[in-house]
Amino acid sequence: MRRSILAFSMLAAAAALPGAAAADVLDKIKERGTLVVGVKTDYRPFGFRDPSGAIIGIEPDMAAEVAKKLGVKLELVSVVSANRMEFLRQGKIDLMIATMSDKPERRKVVQVIEPLYYSDAVNVLLSDKVKVTKWEQLKGAKLCGTTGAFYNKDVATQYGPEIISFDGSEKPLIALKQGNCIGYLYDQTFIAGKMLEDDWKTAYHMPLPGIMETPWAMAVAPGEDRFAKLMSDMTKDWMKSGAIVAMEKKWGVKPTEYSERMFKEHKGS
């Protein structure tokens, strides 16, 4: 009896060790026959819904490539910034490709895939009536922003605009249209996506250079080392082949300096 208890305790302790789940996550996906990936659905063109409700975009395309590699079906789960890491930790998704900026505190919660697959910058969507060429010209101006964006304070301190924050990305856009601010401070890629839409491309522009480049990270649950290695190899292959640049062009995004730089560095490697 004592030996049984000891053996059970050892098994329980082994299961609790970091990395214990790493050995079987890919097996679970293959056994299930489906890869479950968390993506955004409010971030055109990286993840959004078409008129039929299907989730499409650059990151769903990446997820499809992973499912193809594994030989399984793909299930996309809509996530938001507030729940994407928790979904991963809870096992609701196997992989997260959801415009997540790489930050030290996030690396304590999820296992980040390297090399980092993308990089964004900070920019501002401005009314065409606003003629500026330098960030310093925004000093004292009212900008709408998203509550919790890590760069709000830095931009306000460095360049001097007054930032009025709202939850999410739709409320600040509405406030901009209502004239409560002269521009929307947010991720450059999101703004680039908005400018593909009829509602925004005629009366708004993005005349300033992007600042505060911040890489984006895909992630798996902590300890999923086998899956992390597979994703790392796939990311290198995408950079080597120029696949990410091709996806940007497919979805109407001007290739970022980061994706073009990664293509040049990995091409021929």
Write the layout of secondary structure elements.
Elements: H1 2-16, H2 25-32, E1 34-39, E2 42-43, E3 47-49, E4 55-56, H3 58-70, E5 73-78, H4 84-89, E6 95-96, H5 104-107, E7 111-112, E8 118-127, E9 142-146, H6 152-159, E10 162-166, H7 170-177, E11 183-187, H8 188-194, H9 198-201, E12 204-205, E13 211-216, E14 219-220, H10 225-241, H11 243-250, H12 257-266
Parallel strand pairs: 1-5, 1-6, 9-10, 9-11
Antiparallel strand pairs: 2-3, 3-4, 7-14, 8-11, 8-12, 8-13
Keywords: Signal, Transport
InterPro entries: Bact_solute-bind_prot3, Solute-binding_3/MltF_N
GO cellular component, one term: extracellular region
Task: Give a structural overview.
The protein has 12 helices and 14 strands. The chain is α/β, with parallel strands linked by helices and 269 residues long. The protein has 2 domains: 25-119 and 215-266, Periplasmic binding protein-like II (D-Maltodextrin-Binding Protein, domain 2, 3-Layer(aba) Sandwich); 120-213, D-Maltodextrin-Binding Protein, domain 2. The strands form 4 sheets. Strands 8, 9, 10, 11, 12 and 13 form a 6-stranded mixed sheet that branches. Strands 5-1-6 form a 3-stranded parallel sheet. It has a 3-stranded antiparallel sheet with strand order 2-3-4, covered by helices on one side. The chain starts with a helix and ends with a helix. Residues 1-23 form the signal peptide.
What distinguishing features does this structure have?
269 residues; three-stranded parallel β-sheet; Bact_solute-bind_prot3; Amino acid ABC transporter substrate-binding protein (PAAT family); D-Maltodextrin-Binding Protein, domain 2; alpha/beta
